[in-house]
Amino acid sequence: MPNIVLFSGSSHHDLSQKVADRLGLDLGKVITKKFSNQETCVEIGESVRGEDVYIVQSGCGEINDNLMELLIMINACKIASSSRVTAVIPCFPYARQDKKDKSRAPISAKLVANMLSVAGADHIITMDLHASQIQVRPRGHPGGRHGRHLRHHLPRC
């Protein structure tokens, strides 16, 4: 049976630490940095081979940087042979762009869900999506999960 490894993105380290404390886990070792051209670099600092990985990263603050960091972390864990990667995203990025309200308008929430799937997310845990039509689930996986109890520990977006 795989062990759980919990990583924190840089968006909300305090929340990740509270989750780790509640579960009796230590946060996994991860180094995130920016190159001089502002590209995000992520290094997973421990083996995740065969492990059940959870990555906590909110879609608040520097939303595009946080999203890219999450995608890179998911992919890094997946190619390092983790058994499963679950993205814990309390504030789902681009959730308000959930339908075509004008011709030629993108459905950005669906694009984000697709990017998470392509990066390697097996499951996505989020809470109170902007609209019910954004049922976020990676391709080939049954229904999404919602974490309403996280609301009390999140900054306002």
From TrEMBL:
Domain of life of the organism encoding this protein: Eukaryota
Residue ranges, annotated region (Disordered): 138-157
Keywords annotated in UniProt: ATP-binding, Kinase, Nucleotide biosynthesis, Nucleotide-binding, Transferase
UniProt record, GO biological process: 5-phosphoribose 1-diphosphate biosynthetic process; purine nucleotide biosynthetic process
GO CC aspect terms: cytoplasm; ribose phosphate diphosphokinase complex
Coiled-coil zones: none
PANTHER family with a match to the protein in the record: RIBOSE-PHOSPHATE DIPHOSPHOKINASE FAMILY MEMBER, RIBOSE-PHOSPHATE PYROPHOSPHOKINASE 2
Protein name in the entry: ribose-phosphate diphosphokinase
